[in-house]
Amino acid sequence: MENKIKILTEKYYEKVRDIRHTIHMNPELGFKEFKTSELIARELKSLDIEVRRNVAKTGVVGLIKGKYEGKTVLLRADMDALQVEEQADIKYKSKIPGVMHACGHDGHVAGLLGCAMVLNELKDELHGNVKLIFQPAEEVEGGAKPMVEEGVLENPKVDAAFGAHLLGSEVEGQIRTMPGPMMAAPDTFSFKVIGVGGHGAVPQSSIDPIVIACQVVTSLQTIVSRRISPLKPVVITCGSIHGGNGHNIIPNEVEVEGTIRTFDRESRESIPKIMEEIIKGITTCQGATYEFNYEAKYPSVINDEDMTNLAISSLRKIAGEDCVDIFKEPMMGGEDFAYYAQEVPSCFFFVGIAKDKNKPVLHHNPNFKWDDENMKILTCSLSQVAVDFLNEKSVLM
User: Is 33 marked active-site?
Assistant: First the structure.
């Protein structure tokens, strides 16, 4: 079967490449992927694949029904671009000012459409169904959760889910994954220190929120170093701080924004409470007040062990024994594929796109670019995993 998949992937490659270029030139932000979803639906309908549109606003669901009865496997790609001005020197550069596909989602969509083309030709050999999920808004708001809430795991009921992401820190031809917690929960926070503004020359008449905010930012790092077990990976990053507009003016308030990355539920639930205790204690003793906001984002991506083992076996048929390996440690990046993995046994894996291990391709960067040929391994990998899940007796039992 892997030979058939590889031959069909080559057959459709030029079409897949052209689709990727079209999407790349017309990037759209989360929940605004109108042209992208229209293109996807058009391509699926041209294959006589059953299509459902406007799921979670712009999401598209395709369903390939195999000839034989069996289970249902879900394959997912994300569609949204980023607010980044493209500087990459490529012929298919973004036509939309300030917006580009700087993370590879154009390749994810095109690669999954290629997978649709391949599996549609093989449907007479499939025991079960393939559900193709083209999901909006992974980058910021998270389109996976509303898609699940709108029933993408039902009718027919999904038995397992797989997803893939291009990765600039791994070289071309290499695939990486791991069982268990693989990606962190990427929660966000903000707090505001509210003091009393005044003249910079007479600070004793004011309550300086800048000094207080600096004390808070420094103290928050003691949560990781002193309040959480060193055996539990945690990151607390203050990524934005704003306050004041003059060299001799003490402002009324300072606002800080940041992210918390965790893997285990206990740390995830306790850290916001500890943060507020610290913020409250420092501001109160300095005579200031505060506002604190915490927003839970995606859960941690936790790969099912059985699905990961199946995926590794399938991926080695495509990439080769030596090109598929397990990550040595989890990643602190987040992914809303976690919402699918919470509901059904799942595996998420990464496909390398770097030409040189020592020169990684930087995601979310204005010069982000990668070779179209990498979509072949993406299409082949997703196709092989789906076929093996549906047709392997060990999985169907």
Answer: no
